């Protein structure tokens, strides 16, 4: 089930080849997606069957995202988990003209400048992938297990502030969930309220 | 039902109670001496007081945010994104401060998302209680952090202070040291009173409020002591229970009001109690709470 507002927003987006599931509920199959990375290669959810997958919603101008990147925390997470075989996708759903919207070249330059290490950066300027996951904030984090089931949906950590000083002491929900799930344990905190700036979807009438 | 949400029921991140020490990063470039007013992040922020004596010697103060046009501040439950303002008080010996009181918010759509918050001139009243000794003058300090958003979001912070002195025959009326004739306080009192009128009240005891879990929705039924209005908004007091962006269905028949709200995708277990503000208008809101029941068996 979905709200009419999501339907209106989706109606403005490109026609999809396959139906999109709207709910991103932990314990259920993760919503499908098809989005191109900064090299022009298309990635679909099904491509990652058999791997752990992290989705990181991103907007380089948002103070909550800056907190994670200026502190080096997001880069550290990306390196740590991709080294363990996790696929890490940074997703940018900002509409053209809105904060966080970048061209492929700009996104690559940012990754290089920040020393980030995602597996790929997906460009989602129509917001279709964001809306499939009902991504609300930047950052908003999701974890999908190798069977395609969503096991985490929520905040990156337990300190919903813009203060860099809050990064070292924060409990990182993504690391916690991955550590648990990848060793066969139940995820102790499968959802949390995502915090950050709103994802800059296209506004009806734009 | 208490008048304000209790901190213990709401995640610490939203708690704005006195004494809740919130981790505050150091702020580079902060001025040394706090002032009563400050400007930051598209906001004029100030500490004001109504100057009246309340029961047990308490006085009503407030933090006033005057936002640039188009920018919004967040409610206690910010909705899909954002964070409410927080305060850490620096109080003289023996003083205490209550929680912020939150006027009925607006529902603010941002594309497919919905926030709860305020535009324009916003006062969050707060009750300050001086010690019985009533020694003055006393300087009340407030370290504020807040977030305002328009298309983009900007965090703000300020350190404010207000010097107060006890006056009146019993020394129970505290007035600003800088405004002993209370010329300014009159205007501040009007602003604080206006905000307090808009703070939701507990639902009248005569109302019957029930909540049922039905599929992917909660159905809240209220039997009122008056004809049910047709335009009503339900503002959830707990984050992560209700889908903030989904439209709400409202039906009213006689004295009965029925509100259907979609459950949040983040709900992993049924909540015991659904708490929220039922707003008839921007001025008239009621705090309701109901234990969530499973739907009745078909029969």
Task: Give a quick rundown of the structure.
The complex is a heterodimer of chains A (206) and B (299). Chain A contains six helices and nine strands.
Please characterize this protein's 3D structure:
The complex is a heterodimer of chains A (206) and B (299). Chain A has 206 residues and is an alpha+beta fold. Chain A has a single domain (49-198), classed as Glutaredoxin (3-Layer(aba) Sandwich). Chain A contains six helices and nine strands, in the order αβββααβαβαβββαβ. Chain A has helices spanning 4-11, 63-70, 73-82, 104-114, 128-133, 173-181, and strands at residues 34-37, 42-44, 53-57, 87-92, 120-123, 137-138, 141-144, 150-154, 197-198. In chain A, the strands form two sheets. Chain A has a seven-stranded mixed β-sheet, covered by helices on one side. A two-stranded antiparallel ribbon of chain A has the order 6-9. In chain A, strand 4 (87-92), helix 4 (104-114) and strand 5 (120-123) form a beta-alpha-beta unit. The radius of gyration of chain A is 16 Å and the shape is globular. The two termini of chain A are 26 Å apart. Mean pLDDT of chain A is 91; it is low at 10-21. Chain B has one helix and 20 strands. With 299 residues, chain B is mainly β. In chain B, the strands form four sheets. In chain B, strands 13, 14, 15, 16, 17, 18, 19 and 20 form an eight-stranded mixed β-sheet that branches. Chain B has a five-stranded antiparallel β-sheet with strand order 1-2-3-9-6. Chain B has a four-stranded antiparallel β-sheet with strand order 5-10-11-12, with no helix packed on it. Chain B folds into two domains: 7-199, Immunoglobulin-like (Sandwich), CATH 2.60.40; 202-293, Sandwich (Immunoglobulin-like), CATH 2.60.40. Residues 1-29 of chain B have low confidence and may be disordered. In chain B, 5% of the residues lie in helices and 45% in strands. Chain B has one helix at 183-197, and strands spanning 37-40, 43-49, 59-67, 72-79, 86-90, 96-97, 106-110, 113-119, 121-129, 138-149, 153-167, 173-176, 201-202, 208-214, 217-223, 233-236, 249-253, 256-262, 273-279, 285-293. The longest helix of chain B has 15 residues, at 183-197. The A-B interface holds A 1-6, 8-9, 23-27, 61-64, 98-99, 127, 131, 134, 136-137, 153-154, 158-166, 169, 190-204 and B 11, 13, 23-26, 80-83, 109-115, 145, 147, 149, 151-155, 216, 239-240, 243, 245-247, 262, 265-268.
